[in-house]
């Protein structure tokens, strides 16, 4: 899951932890994710992410 493991929503059906102010995303995450995909030799990737309502940087 990209953008960390903490979501800004508290959906009743979801088991992802929530917080109003989650920790900031890892600035190296895009590069690290791309490197991992290349190293795994994948042709198709589906990425999921937590919700970051109100965070204009994401």
TrEMBL record:
GO terms for cellular component: mitochondrion. Pfam families: Radical_SAM. The keyword Transmembrane does not apply. SUPFAM superfamilies: Radical SAM enzymes (SSF102114). Keywords: 4Fe-4S, Iron, Iron-sulfur, Metal-binding. Residues 2-53 form the Radical SAM core domain. It comes from the Eukaryota. This is Radical SAM core domain-containing protein. It comes from Dreissena polymorpha (Zebra mussel). The lineage of its organism: Eukaryota, Metazoa, Spiralia, Lophotrochozoa, Mollusca.
